Amino acid sequence: MLPKPHRRGGPAAVASLAAAALLLSACGGGGEDDNALHILVVKHALTGPMADMGWVADIEEAAGIPVEWEEVSADWDQKKSTMLAAGDIPDLVIGANAVTDADMVTFTGLFEDLSDDMDALPNVQAMFDARPETELMATRPDGEVFSIPSYRRFWPQTSTRQYINQQWLDNLGLEQPTTWDELHEVLLAFKTEDANGNGDPDDEIPIDWSPAGESGFGYFQPSVFLGSLGLPITNGGGSGYFVEDGTVGNFLTDPRYKEVVSFLHDLYADGLVSADVMTQDYSAYQSVGRGDGDTAKVGFSWGWTASDRFGPQIADQYAPIAPLAADASTTDVAWTYDSYSLNYGLNTITMSAQSTKKDAALKVIDAFYGQDLSLQALWGEFGQNIEDGGNGVYTVLPPADETLDPSSWKWTTTLADNSPGWIRDDIEVTLPTDIQEAVEDEAPFADALAAIDPATDIWPGELIKMNAEDSSRLSLLHTDILGPAMQRWATWITEGGVDAEWDDYVAELEGLGLTEAVEIHQRYYDEYLAAQG
Amino acid sequence: MQRLPDKQSPFASLRRDTPGDLVFKALLALCCVLVLLLTLYPIYFVVIASVSSPDLVSTGQVWLFPRDLSWFGYEQILADDRIWNGYRNTLLYAVAGTALNLLVTMPAAFTLSRREFRPRRVLMFFFAFTMFFSGGLIPMYLLLRDLNLLDNWLVFILPSAVNVFNLIIARSFFEHSLPEELHEAASIDGANYFQFFLKIALPLSMPILSVIGLYYLVQHWNDFFTGLVFVRDYSLQPLQIVLRDILISNQAFSGGAGGAGGAGAGSYAQQYADQIKYGVIVVSTLPVIVLYPFLQRYFEKGVMIGAVKG
Amino acid sequence: MTSAATARTAGGLAPRRAPGPVHRLKRHFRRYWQLWVMVAPAVAFVAVFAYVPMYGLQLAFREFDFAAGITGGDWVGLKYFQQFFDSPQFWTLLRNTVVISVSTLAAGFIAPIALALMVNQVLGRRRKKFLQTATYLPHFISIVVIVGMLQVFLSPTSGLITRVAGLFGVDDANFLGSASAFVPVYVLSEVWQHAGWNSIIYLAALSSVDPQLYEAAKIDGAGRFSIIRHVDVPALVPTMIVLLILNMGNVLNTGFEKIFLMQNPLNLGVSEVIATYVYKIGILSNQFSYATAIGLFNTLINFAFLVVANQIAKRVSNTSLW
């Protein structure tokens, strides 16, 4: 570009030399040429370094070669899409759903098919035999196995428990509600009277729930009221799919959903719902629930456990209460069934197809599914976190750090729910108090949950694997459908209008492809049923 | 004999205020106070929120003074070893990066400002085009991999060597603030472009040099995307990534409702997430604020030179 | 760039008398080689880091096929553009995007100018410096924190601003949850955050105003407002025009992260913009081709606006980018 060589160097000349040097050095190229096994771990943000976990040494020993850990605890989605699209992944990727079903159909050929390596994975094969649903979760429609799930066994069947402030009820001489109408009356009493007894009749929030996003329903949201009308949902509702008598439906256009929305609007119109309910973030929702010192602020809400939802100080004011019936004539009350997402971890370990250390990688995978390592990866190392009593009897120890609750302790010291592993059904484990509390608080829901047969009454999203075309079509349809649907959910509850706008709304969602989306689900569900025999 | 008029106050030589002046001054003072209040209060809020009980903050009970004083957030942030390494990295990237930025941008802006240089229009288009069209992340990732820049500290410096926006600003400054007569006079004295640029144009452009320098510096200071996508070696990560990790690790439970991973996760982190959020903003902003007075001194010196020579 | 190649082939044939292209080129380089040297590093960096990856744009016209590589997927032409135009969301997205960006651009353009003119009037270096530093502070606050602050200040139950609005008779205002409040809240918070920072460039321009101009104006008996109008404002015009042109190239650009974080089901009707949609489609659903196509559409519209604005500015004020 330059007509003659320049002798004198100015800043510009220096910079252009630097640029030229850069371009020359560009020809280097190269990649990983070391002999270590590279494992990327998607950790929970609280989780400490892998080097601090005692059980990691056992994994490294199983590998037989040095292991290089790459630890990601934030923004995995953003990192991942570039990394995968560039085909640049380490030998193994670990983490609950770190590599999703959608990734597997998009990045074909990037992941190792483990279905023909089962001889090298005896522990995994044993889990598949003992818990056949784990094999279903792992197997693609064409029979490949790109990723292995985990099984945690002891978690409860639902994540959403319903709580009422028993102390407030007692203060006002009220009974626990069993129907929507009774709830409405109780909440009115909470509002108009000084239920928490602090002298201010106006500081009570009768009912509050976790903010629903723009992409569907989740835990701790009033979508569980669909159960009051006998409609069982999974994972708090998700995109709305449910199964009834072998037919897949979507509750977003179901008349029972309309009833729930109008009931919630009645509550809202009476000023019983927190004014922040649609706009607060989860952290504000939790803070408000914790009240002010010993004074509770919230009367009725949903959460994981009372102490998680309301904080240790006022947790004992709250009692879990059974699912409500819409009215006295309702008999088949249902609830949200979440066991497939609580007791199982989808796609917890995935192997690169380009790995040059296949043997070591397979050994590591299988090691994670050993009896002792499964426990340690989930709750922490023997000695510090778990006491190994021998003969398959284990006790999960209370936190060594007294300032932490058992749950935070677990997340801090080990991979916890992000880890691959298989908790055997024939061992005996004394659970940590957080899981104990969750299981105990589940008692009022036992009947409703027992009435749900996971094989026929719910949409088993975790067990169904879709092909590339359908999964990509559905993700587009859902992006288009859920926006308007969630917007309507929020406005109808706060401003009303569900009766007048319902028919147009149903037509709109169908126009956006809801019918097609339900049909795709139905097709897969039929295949799933057929495969079940 | 003749004192240079004080550049900071165009009206310094006005001895007496007319009634109009008084009204003007009152209005000005009012506006300034209002603007200050509007900008400073929320900042003040961040500071008191960073040392107050998080529950009181999120329920709107902290307004004027910190309540339930707690240094937990800062303890958490500063106890993290990674943060010091992050500071060091960021400082290196910001200083080296800004130096390269100015070295590349200022001469280019000068060239592009020369009206007699015909190719400048084509070149401007060549630059401006890239403000809009980019190939996307994946090709960029592949390119950086081929250049061996992944997991290499130069990735924080080289790809961002030219910011076209800053280039245009600098060019426009040269165009409008360098009188043509200066160049003519310099050419008559036998100065070539290099000499003219180094000895005359550059000294006259201290205000823009410091503004552009500040822009670049802050761009490097706040850059977390590069580290996020192109760097996997944690020892190279800049402050922003470290702080973001601390932030996220304490907010992790906020998204708890989203998946099995978060359900039931403890109350400890939940409670302090917000305090750490506000602490992080204080920690990450402080150095740039401290740095500014130094830059501004430079800035004012530049202005004075401009006043003398212009 | 291509002229060098032309020059080589035409070399021996150039007639001596009329100055041929080679001759002109030689003369050009002899005269301007130093300018070329000064611009070369910038050209090199931009060529490598901006132009080389641009092949990725093909993805908008191809099926993303991981196994075949970025440029190896089947050519599908305008399929993904068509898909976007036919999408039920298209007009809503376009409208929301334009409304948000144009109001942000307008307010974000005027505020820094007003602020710079005001700061410039303040007497005393210390006061001025303090004011200037104070007003650009918010620029450094990260988006996550800004949105968190908005939530605290605007909460319908406890927010300070909500309570102040209550004093003025606006009861039960829900600034976060109402669709009509979304754009004002977004725009005002943008102005609050960036006006001070963006005024730096104008203050730099004001600082290079020739002091004699003020003297002359005073001698002419001009009042303060008149001096601002006739001396200060004209000094800002070139910068204003350049920034205005650049802003025109942003009509379809909106801050992604902030809008994304501010979204809730109540305001989704006005807050879903092209950038957030692309994120939901591209990152969350792995639709790389579709996301690239939407991004490219966005870019083309922006670029068209930039080109038009540039032409107009060239005609009207003789200032232009190229």
UniProtKB/TrEMBL annotation, chain A:
<keyword id="KW-0732">Signal</keyword>
<feature type="signal peptide">
    <location>
        <begin position="1"/>
        <end position="26"/>
    </location>
</feature>
<protein>
    <submittedName>
        <fullName>Putative aldouronate transport system substrate-binding protein</fullName>
    </submittedName>
</protein>
<dbReference type="InterPro" id="IPR050490">
    <property type="entry name" value="Bact_solute-bd_prot1"/>
</dbReference>
TrEMBL record, chain B:
<keyword id="KW-0472">Membrane</keyword>
<feature type="domain" description="ABC transmembrane type-1">
    <location>
        <begin position="87"/>
        <end position="299"/>
    </location>
</feature>
<feature type="transmembrane region" description="Helical">
    <location>
        <begin position="122"/>
        <end position="141"/>
    </location>
</feature>
<feature type="transmembrane region" description="Helical">
    <location>
        <begin position="276"/>
        <end position="295"/>
    </location>
</feature>
<comment type="similarity">
    <text>Belongs to the binding-protein-dependent transport system permease family.</text>
</comment>
<keyword id="KW-0812">Transmembrane</keyword>
<dbReference type="GO" id="GO:0005886">
    <property type="term" value="C:plasma membrane"/>
</dbReference>
<feature type="transmembrane region" description="Helical">
    <location>
        <begin position="22"/>
        <end position="44"/>
    </location>
</feature>
<dbReference type="Pfam" id="PF00528">
    <property type="entry name" value="BPD_transp_1"/>
</dbReference>
<keyword id="KW-1133">Transmembrane helix</keyword>
<dbReference type="InterPro" id="IPR035906">
    <property type="entry name" value="MetI-like_sf"/>
</dbReference>
<feature type="transmembrane region" description="Helical">
    <location>
        <begin position="196"/>
        <end position="218"/>
    </location>
</feature>
<dbReference type="InterPro" id="IPR000515">
    <property type="entry name" value="MetI-like"/>
</dbReference>
<keyword id="KW-1003">Cell membrane</keyword>
<protein>
    <submittedName>
        <fullName>Carbohydrate ABC transporter membrane protein 2 (CUT1 family)</fullName>
    </submittedName>
</protein>
TrEMBL record, chain C:
<keyword id="KW-0472">Membrane</keyword>
<keyword id="KW-0813">Transport</keyword>
<feature type="transmembrane region" description="Helical">
    <location>
        <begin position="288"/>
        <end position="309"/>
    </location>
</feature>
<protein>
    <submittedName>
        <fullName>Carbohydrate ABC transporter membrane protein 1 (CUT1 family)</fullName>
    </submittedName>
</protein>
<dbReference type="GO" id="GO:0005886">
    <property type="term" value="C:plasma membrane"/>
</dbReference>
<dbReference type="GO" id="GO:0055085">
    <property type="term" value="P:transmembrane transport"/>
</dbReference>
<keyword id="KW-1003">Cell membrane</keyword>
<feature type="transmembrane region" description="Helical">
    <location>
        <begin position="98"/>
        <end position="123"/>
    </location>
</feature>
<comment type="similarity">
    <text>Belongs to the binding-protein-dependent transport system permease family.</text>
</comment>
<feature type="transmembrane region" description="Helical">
    <location>
        <begin position="135"/>
        <end position="154"/>
    </location>
</feature>
<keyword id="KW-0812">Transmembrane</keyword>
<dbReference type="Pfam" id="PF00528">
    <property type="entry name" value="BPD_transp_1"/>
</dbReference>
<feature type="domain" description="ABC transmembrane type-1">
    <location>
        <begin position="94"/>
        <end position="309"/>
    </location>
</feature>
<dbReference type="InterPro" id="IPR050809">
    <property type="entry name" value="UgpAE/MalFG_permease"/>
</dbReference>
<feature type="transmembrane region" description="Helical">
    <location>
        <begin position="33"/>
        <end position="52"/>
    </location>
</feature>
